[in-house]
Structure formats: structure tokens, C-alpha cells
Amino acid sequence: MDSLAQNIQSVTSQKSGVTRLTLTDFRNYAFLRLNTNLRPIIITGENGSGKTNILEAVSFLTPGRGLRGARLADIRRFTPAVVENDYQPSNGSWAVSAMVYKNGDDFEIGTAVENAIKDDDETNGYNKRIVKIDGQKVSSQGELGKYVSAIWLTPQMDRLFRGGSQPRRSFLDRLVFAFDNEHAKRTANFEHLYKQWYQLIKSTNGRADNAWLEGIEENMAAIGVAIAAARREQIARLNSFIENEPDDVFPNVILELGGTIEKMLDKMPAVDVEDFYIDKLKKERRNILYNDSVDGVNRTDFKVTYKRKRMPAELCSTGEQKSLLISIILAQTKCQILYQGFAPILLLDEVAAHLDDIKREALLNKIKDLGLQAWITSTDRDIFSSMKNDADFFEVKNNMVIQI
To answer: At 11, is the pLDDT very low, low, confident or very high (cuts 50, 70, 90)?
Structure first.
């Protein structure tokens, strides 16, 4: 066993993952409780039975909007049920709670959405997400990143390299967040400032108070440069790891950032890039009146190249693109184990699609060798026969989940 494998094994010998998952009024489940072991979890069932909903629930144990990026209001059951359980949400709400094991300790994590009232007006309500750690409410979703980290691969991501840049950027930012808990907060703050800046210019036809705009632009530049720097650091970390520890089955990749601000950091100190960004935003004020987008960290693209073929990912076959994504996820997972000291949970929705038998078995063996908890869905239980002694198997049917 080489030194890398030994180092990873020393970390993953301290298992981490979800040992109990409870859903209340979540998607198609009135109430669901799963008790699981710290090993792969295979969930099978017909299309539309609710397999992905379970993975989505696990993804809500991390900061953000889950693996579907759904609106909070769209996740609840349409006919909520009253059930005796750990958390009783109000009408129209949903909840996910879990017992999480990490480095020898158990933590109880819960997240829920409730209807909140704005300005004491009961007709002016909105959905509010709350988070609790060991029964104590915390002020920020970012706290979840200290206890659970998850990386997911869904069928929608099969088109990641062929569509617009936004999904690729979101994928990259999730990778960054695993190493920098403040990154999600920065990206959310930047988005809020950008919308404020954009709406202010549009609503005043470019005649907004100059001092007000400058204040927003200075904040945008400072946060934007921090976002760009964190992305560059993560790309460099992954490229270095892939170069020194190439995978034996999945293709090696070269990762790049296609963004003006990120590229400026290659040439200039961060403080000078901030000044550049401020000037750029000032010059873009007039353009925003006629254009819906402005070049910046909110338009950065995440570019992937199949190294051996020297081919951009968007030109590769569907199967090759799936393999490239898996290669990135495996490199991220190994980096995270080594640098963060605990393993992420893998959420793999219909991962066998577009993989041949050799690559599918290779992926399953790597998951076993890394000692990961991976939640894997499929319509075909038989393709996981090699995992029969190494995984928990569940079947979803009629809004029920049974262990098999």
C-alpha cells in the first residue's frame, strides 16, 4: 500500500456519515426514518418512486439549496401529515433531521422550513429555513459544513459541460466550500449585492446616487476578489493532486477558470485587482441599462479538459463526460479526506447510467476502498451484486422504504 492510500485509510478508519435519517412532510414522504450503517447505501425502485428525494434530503444537511437547487416552498408535501416524530413542522413546512457520526462523536442535526410573517402582516408570509445542531438553533447554514460534507452527481449533471456556465460555476463553488466554509456566505452576499446594484441602476435609469452606488461597488469588488481567490486556490489544489496521483481507471483532467477577475489575480496583487474591479463596475453602469449581464465572478466559467486526448469536456462523448465528472469527484474526495480530516458523503443518483460494466465496478470498488458512506440510487438492484456484503440495500415502493 502506497503512502497516499495509507494516509487516506488512517483518516477513513474514523468513519463518518449519517446513521439515522428522518424526513417529515418532505416531497412524497409524510414520515420516513432510515437507520443506516457507515458504508454504501443502495436505494432501488421504479422511476418516480422517490429515490432521489432521499438523496436530496441528505443534501439539505449541508448549506445551500440541495442537489436540485429547489425553492424551499416546492419541497413540502402537498398534503402534510400529522405524525409523532422528532420535529413537528407547521402546516406547509418540511423537516429533515439526522444523527451524524464524525470522528468518534455523534451529532444531531436538523433543518426545517417554516412559514414566517413579515412586518406583523399575516398575509405577508415567506419561507424561512432554520438549522439546529444538537437541539440549539444556529444563525447560519454555514455551520452545517463543520459536521457534514456532501458531493453529489445527478443525471442532470450529465449535461453539465454542454449548457451555460452557471451550473458549472455552482458545481465548482460547492467544491470550494468543502475547504472554505465562508465561501458559500461570500457567494450569497455577492449575489445579493449584485441584485441590489442592478435594480438600483435599472429603476433609476442610471441616475442613482453616486455615493450609494460606489459603496455597493466597493463591497462587490472586495467580496468578488475573495471569491475568485478561493476558486483559484481550489483549482490549483485539485490540479496538483491529479497530476501527482493520477487515477488508474477514470481519465485525468486539467481544470481551468475562465473568468476576468480570476485571471487578473495571476498578474496583480489582490488589492490592485479590487481597484480594477471597482473601475470595471463603474464603467459597466451604463451598459447594464442595455444588457442583463456584466462580466465578473458571477460569470466565471469552470473549464475541464480530457488530458490524454487534449479535448475540451464539451466535445467528449456522454460516457466520457460522466467519467470526467467522476474523476473530479474522486480527486476532490481524496483531497478532502487528506486536508480536512473527514470523508464527504457521496450522493450518486443513477450513477450507473452511461458507465460501462468495468467503470461501474471500478467506481464501486473505489468507494469501498476509500471507506466512504455513499448513497446510490438505481432502478436495477442486480448491478450491485458485488456489494451484497458491503452495503445496506433499501427498496422504495408506494412512498415506503424497506430494507432488503
So the answer is: low
